[in-house]
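Exercise 7. Given the encoded structure of a 408-residue chain, write a plausible sequence.
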């Protein structure tokens, strides 16, 4: 059996492709003053906090000491409080000797984070190798016992503050990896999980937006429904080193909003924006004005209906292409999906139809008739959103497959 045929067969037979996973992620158990849906921005310094507020985010993800590495955690926290932003802070910084008196009753502290991506291969000929798995399937990954010890220490100090761990999404979504053996020990050392999977930036024509939902479904099974969050690409990170082309690119506004709603459709309790440019001159905020506008409108709608999205019953329908063949594994993925949230009393619904190719902006309906035109449409009319986007190899057929799955 060739590897290509085996991959095709595996994609055909894995049940998660056809039926979204159950049970779904648990709701957040946070104080009443904190958001129901977390809309975060990753690794920002105080110089960009105004941009974080302006785009509609409510949470800072991970302390960043600034481009000169001279901003203290206390200064960062004070500025975040002044801007009325919530935050998630790395535990190894929050509980470090440089921050000897952490405020464990801080009303704006949402969670404590394990160090980022323990599932990356960081095996080097350096002094940190004792921290890494030395052999086997997960060589180079951080030793699970390190996270376990930190988790036990942090929960002893602050038992009510959640601990979150973030993974490299491509290490979860690999279809050959089904047992979660490498990730389950990390998940056990956390209360929440998140992941980053930048499909357009890594390879715009090869990787699918569906990989985000696929990754979420696997982590939901492995974590037995712990609250989950997804990073969203929203800039050209120049991961391939080519700012003028190459295999990767930044997502269009329609693709960015598609990824946001796709994550929520699969049970995310929030999304984190990653707005940086990594290569070709680092930039904390490399979002285009068009993408900024689309995100701002989407976040405004999410915040308007945060209680419905957080507590409502969620029903997901998926559409698959007609007559998928073994020769083209891509055609096994859903091409469209439709998600509906229904309030507990049944009087309010919000429905989002999502083109998983990202060629069209999500279609919003079911918003109460008293809502503004922006809320009824899900966004204001915008040529930047509605213009044709670069073609990708994602499937575009739209035959409907009957059936739906109800969660929560």
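Solution.
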């Amino acid at each position: 059996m060739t590897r290509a045929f085996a991959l095709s067969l595996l994609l055909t037979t894995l049940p998660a492709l056809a039926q979204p996973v159950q049970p779904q992620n648990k709701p957040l158990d946070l104080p009443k003053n904190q958001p129901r849906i977390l809309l975060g921005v990753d690794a920002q310094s105080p110089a960009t906090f105004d941009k974080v507020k302006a785009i509609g985010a409510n949470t800072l993800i991970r302390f960043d000491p600034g481009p000169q590495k001279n901003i203290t955690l206390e200064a960062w926290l004070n500025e975040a409080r002044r801007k009325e932003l919530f935050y998630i802070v790395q535990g190894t910084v929050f509980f470090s000797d440089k921050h000897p008196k952490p405020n464990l009753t801080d009303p704006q502290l949402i969670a404590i984070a394990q160090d980022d991506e323990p599932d990356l291969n960081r095996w080097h000929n350096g002094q940190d190798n004792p921290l890494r798995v030395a052999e086997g399937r997960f060589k180079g990954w951080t030793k699970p016992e390190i996270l376990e010890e930190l988790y036990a220490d942090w929960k002893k100090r602050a038992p009510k503050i959640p601990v979150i761990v973030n993974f490299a999404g491509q290490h979860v979504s690999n279809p050959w990896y089904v047992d979660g053996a490498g990730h389950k020990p990390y998940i056990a050392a956390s209360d929440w999980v998140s992941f980053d999977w930048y499909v357009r930036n890594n390879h715009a024509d090869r990787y699918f937006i569906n990989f985000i939902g696929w990754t979420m479904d696997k982590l939901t099974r492995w974590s037995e429904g712990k609250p989950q969050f997804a990073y969203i690409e929203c800039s050209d990170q120049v991961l391939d080193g080519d700012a003028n082309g190459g295999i990767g690119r930044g997502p269009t506004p329609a693709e960015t909003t598609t990824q946001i709603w796709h994550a929520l459709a699969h049970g995310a309790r929030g999304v984190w924006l990653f707005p940086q440019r990594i290569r070709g001159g680092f930039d904390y905020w490399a979002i285009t004005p068009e993408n900024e506008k689309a995100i701002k409108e989407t976040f405004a709608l999410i915040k308007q209906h945060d209680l419905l999205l957080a507590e409502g019953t969620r029903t997901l329908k998926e559409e698959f292409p007609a007559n998928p063949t073994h020769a083209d594994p891509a055609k096994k993925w859903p091409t469209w999906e439709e998600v509906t949230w229904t309030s507990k009393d049944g009087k309010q619904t919000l429905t989002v139809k999502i083109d998983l190719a990202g060629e069209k902006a999500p279609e919003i309906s079911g918003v109460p008739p008293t809502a503004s035109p922006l809320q009824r449409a899900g966004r204001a009319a915008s040529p930047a959103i509605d213009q044709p986007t670069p073609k990708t190899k994602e499937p575009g057929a739209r035959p409907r497959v009957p059936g739906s799955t109800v969660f929560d």
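Remark. Residues 347 and 368 are 9 Å apart (CA to CA). Students should compare their own answers with the one above.
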